[in-house]
Amino acid sequence: MNINRVKQILSSSADIEVKYNGASVWIDQLNEEGHTATVHLRGPLEERSVVDIGELIEE
Fold first, then answer.
1. Which of 18, 20, 44, 55 measures 20 to 30 Å from 30, CA to CA?
2. How much is the pTM?
3. Rounded to whole angstroms, how far apart are CA atoms 40 and 55?
4. Class of the CATH-defined domain 3-58
């Protein structure tokens, strides 16, 4: 995924499914300089991870 698409998803009110390593995640924050995003798994767990945006896939 690219930076512009991550920005669009963050600013959208739609429920856009994004996957990281096969798991469905929410994007919480974008770090443009490092090309990373903070994400957490959809569901009850709120554990957050910082991942490379190139590893995010829109379903």
1. 44
2. 0.88
3. 14
4. mainly beta
